[in-house]
Amino acid sequence: APRIRRYALTALAESNPAAAEPHVATALADPDESVRIRALLLCANTGLGSAKILPQAVHLISRDARGASPPVVRAAIEVVVSRREANSMAAVDAELALCRLAKPIGFLGRLLGQKPPPSDVLLTAISALGRLGSAKAKKVLQQLCKHKDADVVHAAQEALAGRATRTMSISQVFASAERRKSGSRSATTGGQHSAG
Q1: Is the CB of residue 85 less than 8 Å from the CB of residue 131?
Q2: Which residues contact 143 (CB under 8 A, 6 or more apart)?
Q3: Which of 130, 163, 162 is nearest to 144 (CA)?
Q4: Cα–Cα distances in angstroms (integers) from residue 161 to residues 6, 95, 145, in the given order
Q5: What pLDDT, in 10s, does the model give residues 44-98?
Q6: What is the torsional sign of CA 94, 98, 101, 103?
Q7: Can you say whether the dihedral through the CA atoms of 175, 181, 182, 187 is positive or negative?
Q8: Measuring CA to CA, which residue among 10, 127, 22, 33 is closest to residue 77?
Q9: Which of 91, 105, 181, 194 is surrounded by the fewest CB atoms within 10 Å?
Q10: Which spans in the chain are helix H?
Q11: Which residues 6+ apart lie within 8 Å of 98 measured at CB?
Q12: Among 105, 106, 99, which residue's Cα sits nearest to residue 130?
């Protein structure tokens, strides 16, 4: 069961990080979203599995953010910014991935049918850019201060003012994933909820 796999992954990471390293990396291919998120957040917080997870996290952010599950993309953002803060990732790689994700879509992009990322993903990326604090990140944040969405403008202003916080907690990610699952379950069961 996914719950058991999540707890086993966390317990192994806490008790024997060397043994957990390959398991954290391979958990990114788990069929259950919550296990993939756990693997990403373990990498973000401990660095376990970084060699395999970091490239995949960057790929999720820069290429799949508009199609992948928002909680997974948000966890990938946390991997990138946390590993950058730990100096275990090149600043230019983190900056490029996050700026590409958050940068407003220009006229040509709109003509080509590009869509912005979901709002919760964008807000997470804005917080991450604030934590990076680079000149390029600040430039994107300044552009986002002119966004039509008031939440985006507020988040960009907070990030520019240096009030960006960790982009997410484990509980936030799992709450978001559970809401999505229960929404899809209720849609398939005609709105009936099962006990437990």
Answers
A1: yes
A2: 103, 104
A3: 130
A4: 36, 18, 12
A5: 999 998 899 999 999 888 766 666 789 999 999 999 999 999 998 888 889 999 9
A6: negative
A7: positive
A8: 127
A9: 194
A10: 2-15, 17-26, 33-46, 50-62, 70-85, 91-102, 107-111, 119-132, 135-144, 150-160, 170-188
A11: 61, 77, 80, 81, 125, 128, 129, 132, 137
A12: 99
- pTM for the model: 0.81
Tokens of 130: 């604030």
Contacts of residue 126, Cβ cutoff 8 Å, sequence gap at least 6: 102, 141, 144, 152, 155, 156, 159, 164
Amino acid letter for position 139: K
Q: Which residues of 7-40 are buried (b: 16+ CB within 10 A; e: fewer)?
A: eebbebbeeeeeebbebbbebbebebbbbbbbbb
Place of tokens 């990498």: 43
